[in-house]
Write a structure and sequence with these properties.
Layout (H helix, E strand, L loop, with lengths): L1 E5 L7 H9 L2 E4 L13 E6 L2 E6 L2 E2 L11 E2 L3 H12 L5 H12 L6 H15 L5 E4 L11 H11 L4 E5 L8 H5 L4 E7 L17 H7 L2 H8 L2 E3 L1
Parallel strand pairs: 1-2, 1-8, 2-7, 8-9
Antiparallel strand pairs: 3-4, 5-6, 9-10
Helix pairs in contact: 2-3, 3-4, 3-7
Length: 229
């Protein structure tokens, strides 16, 4: 039985959902400090065949605040119009846009819940049967270091296989997890390429771009295009 713990991101890249697809329980790390200029409220879409940055407006955001202590601003409708103009000719626009609209126009103002709702909604669209929890709602010792907190949460939830993104290889060591009886794996995504508007593929964009250009069946194939190392 496996688990992943990740900060919530704003319409994250596709590998984030592959990680979600890999585990039984996905924990949104909402009680960690907000990171300025990260992916918590920023991402990229395709505009005029170029990378275009989008940013969710926040109120009084600070790296001294936890993610769940920050409120969402008022630019949801502006972002929605940008996405509509950008992707209105994409093949799966009619399927995907109502979902994006529902997410961006949500009345939820707490950043962690707003992002959590987004992740849950997209996971449901992708038919990912994962259980999603918030780290702040799990009883644990918050005085522990981050790695020690992970061991603690795994044991509390009786999940003894922890899966992390491939970038975590520089942070976590398998032998340290094994000392606590926990197996550690990293998800290595296969190369993801799909047809966009023209013949030049632009990688590493938001999940919005992936959804707009790929059918449900192709998305399912892509979700399984990874290995655990």
């Amino acid at each position: 039985m496996s688990i992943a713990i990740m900060q919530p991101y704003f319409f994250p890249y596709f590998a984030y959902f592959q990680l979600m697809h890999t585990v039984d329980v996905f924990v949104i790390a909402d009680d960690l400090n907000y990171i300025k200029n990260g992916f918590i409220n920023k991402n990229s879409i395709l505009l005029n065949n170029q990378v275009f940055k989008i940013s969710l407006q926040l109120k009084a955001a600070s790296q001294n605040k936890l993610i769940n202590e920050i409120e969402v601003g008022e630019n949801g409708s502006t972002l929605l119009e940008t996405i509509r103009r950008t992707y209105r000719k994409a093949p799966y626009f009619e399927d995907v846009f109502p979902m994006i609209e529902k997410i961006l126009l949500s009345k939820e103002k707490n950043l962690s819940k707003y992002l959590g709702n987004s992740l849950f909604t997209i996971a449901r669209y992708l038919d990912i049967p994962v259980k999603i929890l918030y780290l702040s709602e799990i009883e644990k010792d918050n005085e522990l270091r981050l790695d020690e907190r992970i061991y603690d949460v795994c044991k509390k939830l009786n999940k003894m296989h922890y899966v992390n993104s491939i970038g975590g290889q520089s942070l976590y060591k398998k032998e340290m997890f094994l000392k606590h009886g926990i197996q550690l794996s990293f998800i290595q995504s296969n190369e993801i390429i799909y047809k966009q508007y023209n013949n030049v593929f632009i990688p590493n964009l938001s999940i919005i771009d992936v959804l707009m250009f790929n059918s449900k069946s192709h998305l399912n194939e892509m979700l399984n295009a990874y290995s655990l190392v």
